[in-house]
Amino acid sequence: MTMPDDHGASKRRRERDTALSRTVGKKADRKRQAREETHRTIWFGLGMFGLVGWAVALPTLVGVAVGIWIDRTYHPRFSWTLMLLVIGVLAGCVNAWFWLSKERGSIEQGRKGQGRG
Which residue from 56, 50, 45, 65 is spatially nearest to 95, judged by alpha carbons? Predict the structure, then answer.
């Protein structure tokens, strides 16, 4: 004769085992995918990091340079350098977000193509 507590405990144990096997399965899939994606090496990651850095730095530097030129040429009441610095940083962040979302989309597309959606 089984006690009601035994039934509840075994149900919790099965749920815990199911959650554990799902977690292990997901980790195994990620590991297998990492082995299959040989083109995504450490150099690829560093390159992407550099791309994001330059995507933010270039618009910022251009904004500062144009702001300095305007400030020196026209002597306005307020600083165009600061305004264009902020605009450059914002434009750079949007640019970096675009590149990262594009890369993420290609990664997800690759997973869907391999049947791992």
Answer: 56
